[in-house]
Design goal:
The protein is α/β, with parallel strands linked by helices. Helix content is about 40%, strand content about 15%. A 7-stranded mixed β-sheet has the order 1-2-3-4-5-6-7. The two termini are about 15 Å apart. The mean pLDDT is about 95. The protein binds adenosine monophosphate (AMP) and manganese (II) ion (MN) (3 copies). Adenosine monophosphate (AMP) binds next to α5 and α6.
């Protein structure tokens, strides 16, 4: 059984490895099929493809799109997208502009509580066109305002803290249309992380399927076995393919490349579904 990791990040968004470094680490970790799924950008894919050829790793062209559904942030991964699709590229460009506008307000709010030069500080960690809360977190840790990246999120960047700015991202329908229009498969990313009760989760999955979504992640590092079973069950009930990925951003966390595990029996892997032709 091949080793799949279908959710990872590079410096094209908020990861610390360049796409080429990511592919090298994936190769060393024994990954056979890797999806690069940077937030709201396809910018890392070309370099990733060149490195994938060098390391004999199969690359899936991916993206992780920021979505607002019922006022809450969701992430929808697109796998096997055509990276030249103009509607997808335009949609992602609009999300990046939204990120830039958000960053200005975040910086003002952080300045107000005494953080020096937050925007310039965050931008030091930005490599391409995506400006992320993670870049602010690196800067807050660097200047000692927080003890770690995680602590920076907890103290300054998550909802209810001084640097948080609510933002309207893509709608669920838009994100799925962009992915499907680009020949990809839309996947609910890390469903356990939204902490949804059953009724809301069911409403969300109903909308996701109605909009043309096709898959759900059922295996990823922090997901406990009972939740793997729970989301595998939902995959069956909603007719969704199953996906898996580390959501790797940087070393020295629990999200390890190539150690994601395997999909439970009874699920249909996303690579067997429609779109597989694009994934290879
Ligand atoms: P953004 O898309 O700019 O709003 O930033 C969201 C990203 O921040 C996510 O993709 C994660 O990589 C990261 N993130 C969110 N919450 C946390 C947290 N509590 N600790 C560490 N990283 C986080
Ligand atoms: Mn991230
Ligand atoms: Mn995510
Ligand atoms: Mn991710």
């Amino acid at each position: 059984m091949a080793n799949y990791d279908l959710h990872t990040h590079s410096t094209a968004s908020d990861g610390v490895f360049t796409p080429a470094q990511l592919l090298r680490h994936a190769h060393e970790a024994g990954v056979d099929v890797l999806a690069l799924t940077d937030h709201d950008t396809l910018d890392g894919l070309q370099q990733a493809r060149e490195a994938a050829a060098e390391y004999a790793v199969r690359l899936v062209s991916g993206v992780e799109i920021s979505v607002t559904w019922e006022g809450t942030l969701f992430h929808i991964v697109g796998l096997g997208v055509d990276e030249h699709d103009s509607a997808l590229l335009q949609g992602l460009a609009a999300l990046r502009e939204q990120r830039d506008r958000r960053a200005l307000v975040m910086a003002q709010q952080l300045e107000r509580i005494g953080i020096p030069d937050p925007l310039a500080g965050a931008k030091k960690y930005q490599s391409t066109r995506v400006l992320s809360r993670t870049h602010f977190a690196h800067y807050l840790a660097e200047i000692g305002a927080a003890g770690s990246i995680d602590a920076a999120f907890n103290q300054y960047l998550k909802p209810g803290t001084p640097g948080y700015v609510a933002t309207r991202w893509a709608s669920l329908a838009e994100a799925i249309d962009w992915i499907n229009g680009a020949g990809g498969v839309a996947v609910v990313a890390h469903p356990g992380r939204y902490r949804l009760g059953e009724p809301v989760l069911q409403r969300f999955l109903g909308d996701f399927v109605d909009c043309g979504g096709a898959a759900i992640e059922v295996v990823y590092p922090s997901l406990a076995p009972d939740n793997v079973a729970r989301f595998a069950d939902y995959a069956g009930r909603y007719g969704l393919f199953a996906s898996l990925g580390s959501d790797f951003h940087r070393p020295d966390t629990s999200r390890k490349l190539g150690q994601v595990g395997s999909l439970p029996d009874g699920t249909i892997p996303v690579w067997r579904g429609r779109g597989w032709n694009h994934l290879a």
